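As a warm-up, study this chain.
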Amino acid sequence: MAQVVMANSFRGGTGKSTIISNLASYLASVGMKTVVVDADVISPGVHAIFGLDSTSMSTTLTDYLNGDARISEAVYDVSTNLSLTENSLLLVPGSITSTTIAELVSQKKTAERLVKGIPQLIKEFKPDVIMIDTHPGLNDEFLVMSDVAHVLLNIVRPDNQDYQGLRVSAGVAKKLGMKNYVVLNKIHHQIKQPKLRQTIASTYNLPIAGALPLSDDIILSQSQYVFSEKYPEHDFSKGIYEIAANVFGIKHKNHLETMHDLLADINSGKVDQKKLWSHEHMTQAAFKEYVDELQREKFVKKEKGLYVLTDKGKKFLKKYRAISKFVDNFRL
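Now compare it with the structure written out below.
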């Protein structure tokens, strides 16, 4: 069953859509089939980060909510825009046409229709996770979506107004039975992050899913691409990996570390074609992609139902260990 995660902020401008798009892209990259629903119908924006514009969106979530289309007709595969496996990341965008938005705002049953669309997405596309980007504040969409959402990510800046909103929205979500997390965003470098985390966690009795810096790099990206895909070692990207670890149990490792761990386990006989590979930072779908690539590059081959290392794979392990040992022992 798909896990349904809703992101909300009490006020606008918290960076909610940026966080959702980067987190969704990362989840898809590690093998979790992910659907993003841009339910911020008043001011949708996730499509821009995923490389879509008005010319490439013939049908949107707004059309479904207005009763003019099925929700499945508003689903777009954005995986190839982000160098991901086909159909691993799907987007249901909102309309950016003022006329359709105005029509939608005037209707009262938008939220109920939105909720009915989620089970349809699950049935037809069978995702591992659905991420819903909502309009800021405690509105009808927020309250009604709690019927289908399992997890709420409260996006909060270090600001007293955001803190007051967090107390309200998190309190409502608790009463509605959702699991609550706080995501701290736009943290200035002069703010002591450990102290901030401790204060927020203890004051509101909520776990901190992750913390992301205030960064000129994010501002300069102008929502033109998925930042963490382009800059995987950036502090912002590391914050995204932390959220994935705390909310979804996926521990981040870079590709070189993952390649080493997989080859080491294959070399020790821990991996076969039936048991595959079960590690906390990788799904079995992602495992298959790694093994296929390792076979193509002749690091791994099959022998009698087992994966075994080639001479090339063994040389990689030997060099990796030597370099790692050097790095661990080297101190300035």
